[in-house]
Amino acid sequence: GLKSRGFQVAAKSQANYVQTALALGSLLRMDYWPARTSQDAVGALLEMTGKCTLQEYMTAHKYRSIAYLSSGPLQIGLLQETRFGEGDAPTRFSTLENLLLDTSPLINLPRGENLDYANHRQRLRSVLRWLGEPPSGLDPYLVFCHILVPHPPFVFGPNGEERTPPIPYSIGDATGYRGNGEEYGQAYSDQVRWVGPQILKAIDTLRANSTRPTAIFLMGDHGSRRYTDWNSAEHTYMPEAFGNLLAVSVPDELKTRFGTLPDQTTPLPTFRRLLNTVLDEKLPELPNHSYFSTLKKGFTFVDVTEAAQTPVAIEDAKRVHPNPGR
């Protein structure tokens, strides 16, 4: 679908980081993260509020910026404007409070999960709708959109059927996922089948509604994480965790300048290349790297670039992961 719409798709792309806050934060700071003493990746994003490198860069080029966020650890004001996905029903706990409960002795506390899952579905739908609605006005815009799907929680079937998992609301993934591995594999695939056509529809609507040429950078911040251990690189299957979607579309007049997207690449260097193309800049090229870090030591990085590039073999995944039945 993307190729038929003029996108270049990197067939063997890998993510730069296995954690959302680190992967998307690297784009917002336009560079790899340095090793640091801070352990909390989400906290590092909070520190960026008000001094986002990308926002400053785009402002210097007379662009306005807006973020559409569905849920997860990115609900903070990183750009000039921020809109959060709309939920209809009141919830008992915020996303952050649910994350804290997931790691506490109160993990099984009833949380009104039916309302939480219903709101999650509604937020996803609203953000996908906004993606097809360009901001009004004559200014050029940078639109940053984070959609927490096919990531858990699994709330859509392959044809958009509404699903409510029989567990307290959680966005836990990898060894933080509370179901079993077979459930994860099927439910993840089902949400891929649902969201794919929704993304294509949003792209078609965006292009139809846009009054200026539009460049689109589409990426998965990480891969599926059925065989990821949040506490161990040794027990994480890197080809799955880092295998992501990466696709780029530029206006016809910029295609020659952008050139050909390599099959094997990563988001951060590609994003800088896109900025150079659109803004006629000369940001230095960056090498492709993939870094693993645990949740507890988010900035103690292990370079897993070579391991992430290994072709996927499910038997290797089962051998590496400490609990393949999860």
Comma- or semicolon-separated keywords:
3-stranded antiparallel β-sheet, 11 helices, 9% strand, 3-stranded parallel β-sheet, alpha/beta, single chain, 326 residues
Describe the secondary structure blueprint for this structure:
Elements lengths: L7 E2 L10 H10 L11 H8 L4 H8 L3 E6 L11 E4 L10 H8 L10 H19 L9 E6 L34 H29 L6 E4 L18 H5 L3 E4 L5 H4 L8 H13 L11 E2 L9 E2 L1 H4 L5 H7 L6
Parallel strand pairs: 2-3, 2-4
Antiparallel strand pairs: 1-6, 5-6, 7-8
What does this structure look like?
This protein is α/β, with parallel strands linked by helices and 326 residues long. Helices cover 35% and strands 9% of the residues. The chain contains 11 helices and 8 strands. The protein has helices at residues 20-29, 41-48, 53-60, 95-102, 113-131, 181-209, 238-242, 255-258, 267-279, 305-308, 314-320, and strands at 8-9, 64-69, 81-84, 141-146, 216-219, 246-249, 291-292, 302-303. The strands form 3 sheets. It has a 3-stranded antiparallel beta sheet with strand order 1-6-5, covered by helices on one side. Strands 3-2-4 form a 3-stranded parallel beta sheet, with helices on both faces. Strands 7-8 form a two-stranded antiparallel sheet. Helix 1 (20-29) packs parallel to helix 2.
